[in-house]
Design goal:
Largest sheet: 6 strands, parallel
Low-confidence stretches: none
Oligomer: single chain
Distance between the termini: 38 Å
Number of strands: 12
Mean pLDDT: 93
Order of helices and strands: EHHEHEHEHEEHHEHEHEHEHEEHH
């Protein structure tokens, strides 16, 4: 069985898509070939998933239609696949499999995709409240009962690649590592305040930990705000890697973390897939749809009457769901997860 997956456009969604890949291997056997058509940024994630045969580069940016390019890509894939499974619900995501003439084209009903898909599913949100359930269901025939326990995303790390990243950034594993992920592409309503992250960093550094900050180039200034709140002597025990690493390096370095504190973001799902002890901070969003999928997870949230609102900016302007969530709550969650550990001798 040869299957083409049209992948999602966000880091967290791509990580969670591994649950679909696992279900396809379960249904069709280990020889099932899974290729993923996705933007180049996702390649480091897909290369760390053993279920994926290859990542196929999709050159068009998010939201770009360009029918001619989609037809050209589709024609280049003609005759190679038995089935296509589409994770985005957009009309344009259905064009490449259609132009490729893939016999079975599976996806949820979305933006007028009648005719483009010939295995069109109608989503029952009550039956599949979790995003991973909506992904996994596409591996099976309609009305198939998903078996528990659900597979969890698991990214595999090459020790040599990890060691190269440590050397490049001059990082040592002589002390426990607290990884902080203070960014979120969604917007401010997902970002726990810098002063709260700084308070957690201050506490753990005084306990003998070191702090590594992760994120995109846009998150680098926020990382510096956190470091600026640390007094001299403590600030030097932190490293702002946001925007400095590639995604591949960020994944490899995060695998070294003794614990992770993250907003509801793509890196939260990366940390979960690396099975790192994880504290997830929620404000305007909810863990009921896309929770971190790992064994050692503490979700910290206030659950105010106005949340979850899923707004990018607070309609009341106060962001109390995040600002009133005190650092002590996260520190206590970290203590429950890992206490005061020694460095992992296997790293």
């Amino acid at each position: 069985m040869r299957i083409l997956i049209v992948g999602p456009s966000w880091v967290g969604d791509m990580v969670m898509a591994q649950t679909l890949f696992a279900c396809l291997k379960l249904r069709h056997g280990p020889d099932c070939l899974i290729d993923v058509l996705a933007p180049d940024w996702s390649r480091p994630i897909l290369e760390r998933m053993p279920e994926v045969n290859q990542a196929l580069s999709f050159p068009l940016g998010h939201g770009v239609l360009d029918i001619a390019s989609r037809r050209r890509i589709g024609k280049s894939l003609a005759g190679q696949y038995d089935q296509a499974i589409l994770l985005p619900n957009s009309l344009k995501s259905a064009l490449v499999p259609f132009f490729a003439g893939i016999p079975k084209r599976t996806g949820w009903r979305g933006e007028m995709r009648y005719g483009l898909l010939n295995d069109l599913r109608v989503l029952d949100k009550d039956a599949y409240p979790l995003m991973i359930e909506r992904f996994m269901a596409l591996a099976w025939e309609p009305d198939h009962q998903l078996a528990r326990p659900y597979p969890r995303p698991t990214l595999q790390i090459d020790p040599a690649s990890r060691e190269a990243a440590l050397v490049r950034f001059g990082l040592e594993l002589d002390r426990p590592v607290l990884a902080l992920c203070p960014g979120a592409e969604f917007g401010e309503a997902k970002r726990w305040p810098a002063e709260h992250y700084a308070a957690v960093a201050d506490h753990k550094i005084r306990q003998g930990w070191q702090v590594w900050l992760f994120g995109s180039k846009n998150d680098h200034p926020g990382g510096e705000l956190i470091r600026d709140r640390l007094i001299p002597g403590l600030r030097e025990e932190s490293s702002n890697l946001a925007g400095e690493t590639s995604l591949a390096e960020a994944i490899d370095l995060m695998s070294c973390a003794t614990a992770v504190v993250s907003n509801d973001s793509g890196l939260m799902h990366v940390a979960a897939a690396l099975n790192r002890p994880l504290v997830s901070v929620y404000g305007s969003t909810s863990p009921d749809f896309t929770p971190p999928l790992a064994e050692q997870v503490e979700v910290v949230r206030l659950g105010l009457d106005c949340s979850p609102c899923f707004d990018r900016t607070c309609r009341f302007g106060h962001y109390n769901c995040l600002r009133d969530l005190e650092p002590q709550r996260v520190i206590e969650a970290l203590d429950r997860l890992v206490g005061d550990p020694l460095p992992d001798p296997q790293l």
